[in-house]
């Protein structure tokens, strides 16, 4: 079960599921027509979107349950590992799957902006849960792609397929915005824990040993992916997670500067800066004056 198999082509993805390949770079599969698959873990070289057709098993979010339980969309990007850890000999896939090779979108508008769809970097516990109406929109997009795959390939095929994938992904951006809104109370709890995490971090000796807290470190401590965490903080506060951390750093620095028994260099090292000049530069950017000038004006 620890073995990881690479999925590097659409044809391979389809063959694993016992389905035919209609286009070498893109596929839409009705998973109910797939043959059972072995529960291996896979390293994907494709972009893959799974629509779970059945109600998913309850996924926890902190101490809470997910809301929209109708269907689930999971997004996988090239270089990511996906699969199953069950001990069963084989599993029957359900729902739908969209798979496309990066070559399909290379040189297109979507190819230039695919990295902007941050949900390809979300963890499974941050999956997109959609309503019945949203599912209909997803399937309409899949069916349009499927129609093009069944139509003889011509000079319009690639443009129409790629534009439909882009339309689908833009709908997913809207659906994720809805999901963030419907979980506003849960996200506020995350922000409270984020603030507590930063407080405890700077009250400890971690800055001296680990340096300044990074976005990825904070996300990991809160059991979130860095991408999802960044989106959450941005939507709730209007600031990026990095800006939020830097604001906290400046707040702590202002308090420490009052302690004239320590030099500004000592304070910089104590807070996790490798070089005092980096501390001075950041402080001046946020406060409008250097730490030494702030210390003098506060006395």
From TrEMBL:
It holds the Pfam family HTH_18. The keyword Ion transport does not apply. It comes from the Bacteria. Keywords: DNA-binding, Transcription, Transcription regulation. SMART domains: HTH_ARAC. Residues 196-297 form the HTH araC/xylS-type domain. SUPFAM superfamilies: Homeodomain-like. GO terms for molecular function: DNA-binding transcription factor activity; sequence-specific DNA binding. Coiled coil: none annotated. This is Helix-turn-helix domain-containing protein.
